[in-house]
Design a protein that fits this description.
about 160 residues, 9 strands, mainly beta
Length: about 160
């Protein structure tokens, strides 16, 4: 993921700061599972664009716990088959996406902080083509659980 953002101006005495960012994501999709006795095998990609807001809580110990939330959209492009039949499915569609984040940052240089956190991502509304026919119903994609490690640079 790549994100660009900044802090929202607040009172100097605040024990927390609000930051906002625009985030772009990429995921490699691999599906190999059994649902209700049917085996599926699929692969593809997912690109996302999110608007996020965070609240950083400062401590006297140098680290800053944070919480955040975001919303946006993801573009899905995947295809696969039911491995026990000749049925095929695919999706090349945009879907609504949302996420919640929690973690902690710590300074590693004058203008850089390291971060570690947990991210929950949910998606809904992706159309699925099944054997060449677009399903009328919307399919909710599985939620994603991610542990994030990174460096944030301050300019």
């Amino acid at each position: 993921a790549v994100a660009i953002g900044g802090y929202v101006p607040q009172a100097a005495s605040a024990i927390s700061k609000t930051r906002v960012e625009l985030e772009g994501t990429y995921r490699d999709i691999e599906i190999d599972e059994i649902v209700n006795g049917t085996s599926y095998d699929a692969s593809g990609e997912q690109f996302g664009l999110y608007g996020n807001a965070y609240m950083d809580f400062y401590s006297p110990y140098g680290f800053a716990p944070y919480v955040g939330a975001g919303a946006g959209a993801v573009a899905n492009d995947f295809s696969g088959t039911e491995t026990t039949t000749t049925n095929s499915f695919s999706s090349n569609d945009w879907a609504f996406a949302y996420q919640a984040m929690v973690g902690v940052t710590a300074p590693v240089a004058e203008k850089a902080v390291a971060k570690i956190g947990y991210r929950y991502q949910g998606f809904s509304g992706a159309d699925i083509d099944y054997n060449g026919t677009t399903m009328d119903s919307q399919v909710d994609l599985e939620a994603g659980h991610t542990v994030d490690f990174g460096i944030m640079l301050n300019f």
